[in-house]
Amino acid sequence: MESLGIRQESLLYKYVRITAVVSLYWAVSISMVFVNKYLLGGSSGHDKDAPLFVTWFQCFVTAVACILLSQASKVFPNLITFPEVGHLEKSKARQVLPLTFMFVGMITLNNLCLKYVGVAFYYVGRSLTTIFNVIFTYIMLGQKTSSPAIVCCAVIIGGFFLGVDQENEAG
């Protein structure tokens, strides 16, 4: 019986941890979109033509943060765990390079999109990622999607067209 109590406690701990991580991701992601929209201008009156600089600066700060966290994990190993930064193997770098270009491209295009459209429509457009995941999962992996998931995709597509209509109304 005691082992069951410990197991339930650890399961509860896992659920709480997962919920906290997802909530933190949502908060950071949404905050980053609004900060980028503010930096890139548009309706705020601070129209700056700097989406590429913003992308570069975000990547630079990320690299510096990774280096600092790597060093901090050596000084405080009980508090911080982070992989060692600095040693780069050419074979691994070649494998990761296409993903790196895709990531930088994604951030750049996100920033360009935010420069020219509203945050609400940006999120509507971003929701189309789900549709492309379903399509690419079928094409590349050969996995079929359930009927309820297809219905959800239809709702997302309907929301996209409604968002396009509203974006046109807003000018």
**Which strand-content bin applies to the residues?**
under 5%
**Count of the domains:** 3
Q: Note poorly predicted spans.
A: none
Shape: globular
Helical residues, percent: over 70%
Measure the end-to-end span. Answer: 64 Å
Tell me the Rg in angstroms.
21 Å
Q: Specify the biggest β-sheet.
A: none
Helix-strand makeup class: mainly alpha
What kind of oligomer do you see? single chain
Q: How many strands in all? A: 0
Count of individual helical segments: 6
Structure, described:
- The chain is mainly alpha-helical.
- It has 3 domains: 1-48; 51-116, no CATH class; 118-171, no CATH class.
- It is built from 6 helices and no strands.
- It has helices at residues 2-40, 51-75, 90-116, 119-126, 128-141, 147-170.
- α4 runs antiparallel to α6.
- The mean pLDDT is 83.
Topology at a glance:
Elements: H1 2-40, H2 51-75, H3 90-116, H4 119-126, H5 128-141, H6 147-170
Helix pairs in contact: 1-3, 2-3, 4-6, 5-6
Pick out its properties.
0% strand; 3 domains; 171 residues; mainly alpha
Short account of what is shown:
This protein has 171 residues and is an all-alpha fold. The protein is built from 6 helices and no strands.
